Amino acid sequence: MITADGKWAVDFIGRVEQANEDWAQVVKEINARRDPSLPPVPFNPLVPKNVRSGSVSDPYGGANTHCLDAVSSWYACDIERFGYLASAAGGGNGRLPAKLH
Predict the structure, then answer these.
(1) What is the pTM of this model?
(2) Domains of the chain by residue range
């Protein structure tokens, strides 16, 4: 998604945290750019599905802290570029990175 000179190569990046809002924006943009002779693309909200049974109160804590630390370290540039704070990088507290913006 980044060009060789470090610029964005895409028009829009949606976020899982606001999937429906971002998907609505994508559909709106597609419809604004579409050929007027074509029908508009309908907006169909995304329906989240829980793939786990039961409750997971802190999936990034306890014995899993090292996983978040490793991923945060490996993807540090992406975490910064996408506007996330890697709270687990550099010491780790076992928490999901917090969104900055």
Answers:
(1) 0.58
(2) 1-49, 58-101
